[in-house]
Amino acid sequence: MNALFNRPDFDEPITLALVQPNIPQTEKWDAQKDREIRATLRELTDAASRIDGIDLIAWPETAVPDFVRTSRDSYDLIRQLTQAGGTPLLVGTMDVAFLESGRIYYNSSMLFGPDGNEMAKYDKQHLVPFGEYVPFAGLLRKFTPLDIDFSHGDGNTLLSVPGRPPFAVLICFEDTVAPLSVNAVRAGARWLINQTNDAWFDPSAQSEQHLAHAVFRCVENRVPMARCCNTGVTSIIDAFGFIRRNLDVRTKGFTIGELHPRPKNIEATFYTRHGSAFGKVAVIAGATALFVLRSRNRKTKRTGSENG
């Protein structure tokens, strides 16, 4: 209650354009749809970049149909859009690193500056089993359609656009994993952005359930979050869990919104400082109480039996 009625003065707002291309999952990896997907991204980004005062334009998880680093078509598209609009662009894409031992694949978020050059990159840390990698691959791979595994990133990456507080990216279901948000805020992130593709589950209530998880991450750490989703729910959540959404799910478009980053000088929340410590203590206390009560009950029964 104190947090709700005694709110601190938050920083000046950041203005975001969140693109929702609404590409069906059946079309995302269809090579015949590549040109159409890029045309959709160009159309929506061009329109958003004409609006004054935009600090950052964001695309959802794996928005482009290939690897930006190795695709001339996708890289040229990004370079043209950023240079023409003069606005940084956060791109969800697959990425690949070429090592002597072979290729390493990542599910990534790349930040491109107004000059079209890559400013920073975050690699997804928490991978989805059987979706991005196969556990016990030697035994189970023959039962799955996956022929390659993605690798996890090494940790949180702070990203920023000129003159604005740093932020951290959560890809796909990473906003359901509380420690990732805690670690990002501890590292200095003052707001979060979730890039996701929930088209896998359309049409269902899953996208709304995913949104509900994101609210907890904001409240736990008292930071706002922008959510940029392929088919929805694209929205902005403030540091107190209030949701602003202007796009319907499964519609093509973009939304403009403001969020207020967490002030640098306010104290971190109990959850940011201690994580799930309270929950762990509660579990231990509950288990201890159960053990004591059960022991007493056994002792009472034994005494009654002896007296009988």
Question: Would you mind describing this structure in some detail?
Answer:
The protein has helices at residues 2-5, 25-28, 34-49, 72-85, 137-140, 178-186, 206-221, 270-274, 277-307; strands at 14-20, 56-58, 89-99, 102-112, 118-123, 168-171, 192-196, 225-229, 235-237, 243-244, 253-259. It is α/β, with parallel strands linked by helices and 308 residues long. It folds into 2 domains: 2-274, 4-Layer Sandwich (Nitrilase/N-carbamoyl-D-aminoacid amidohydrolase), CATH 3.60.110.10; 276-308. A 6-stranded mixed sheet has the order 5-4-3-2-1-11, with helices on both faces. Strands 6-7-8-9-10 form a 5-stranded mixed sheet, with helices on one face. The protein is globular and about 90 Å long.
Give the low-confidence spans.
Answer: none
| Quaternary state of the chains | single chain
Strand order of the largest sheet: 5-4-3-2-1-11
| Highest CATH level, the class of the largest domain | Alpha Beta
The name of the CATH architecture of the largest domain is 4-Layer Sandwich
Mean pLDDT: 90
CATH superfamily of the largest domain: Carbon-nitrogen hydrolase
Tell me the CATH topology of the largest domain. Nitrilase/N-carbamoyl-D-aminoacid amidohydrolase
Major sheet description: 6 strands, mixed
Shape: globular
Given helix and strand content, the structural type is alpha/beta
Helix content: 25-40%
| Number of distinct beta strands | 11
